[in-house]
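#lab-general

N.A. 3:47 PM
ok so I finally got the sequence cleaned up, no stray characters, all 271 residues accounted for. can someone with queue access submit it? mine expired

B.Y. 3:52 PM
send it over

N.A. 3:53 PM
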Amino acid sequence: MKVNWLEHILGQNWTITPAGGSTGEAYYAQNEGKRLFLKRNSSPFLAVLSAEGIVPKLVWTKRLENGDVITAQEWLEGRELNTEEMKHPRVAALLSKIHHSTELLDMLMRLGKHPLTPDEILQDIKENQKVLDHVDSRLEIHQAIKYLEKNVNRAHHDQHVVCHCDTNHNNWLLSSDNQLYLIDWDNAMVADPALDLGMLLFTYIPKENWNSWMNQYGGIESDHLMERMKWYAVSQSLSFIQWHMMRGEYNEAEIRIQKLGNMMSHHNILP
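B.Y. 4:20 PM
back already:
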């Protein structure tokens, strides 16, 4: 969408700047103290997230003549969490609220999301394996795929919740009035909560703190949960590597490969 479409909606007195992000469809708009975050074709799911206080407040929604939908949210002063702050009990509490929300789950199911299975994730990774052609000789990649294949049946679980699917620290927004939000829900799925938990714990929480973190989350650490978290942490790592490779972001892919290798080594994840 061109900025002039936004000028048509808002009027010409607004200063509009791109907000970045993977889609290039988000903008900041400002006019005499009024500040909005605008996005094209956000999911209807955004309204429920706003009502639950998980994302900044949804101000309005407008449908254009071509069918595109523009959403406007509060543009808040704030910052992303740093890696150390991911250990804070508020992170565990907010993720728990999301995973235990029947309203979020019902809405996402009504939007046609079916529970994502480990088999589907593995199939998607293998179908996209060609993008790893010039790195798949790397031991980390080879071992990770073998591990997923060998343990896919052990990753199955019949409890499904709304998963954000990218609990990276830069998606956690702490506003200037000390409110915590989890933003960027474009890839949300109905899935095993271990999908979100695995990447977060393996990336940010020292192993000796997992039990206390899970108590703050409201769950119980178990052998089966551990196996599922391992599986999803590895599968998400591979998916992110593939995503960066497809975008030609080879430096980012290399960083992810190194992190994957470190995680597998540190936690003794072997095929």
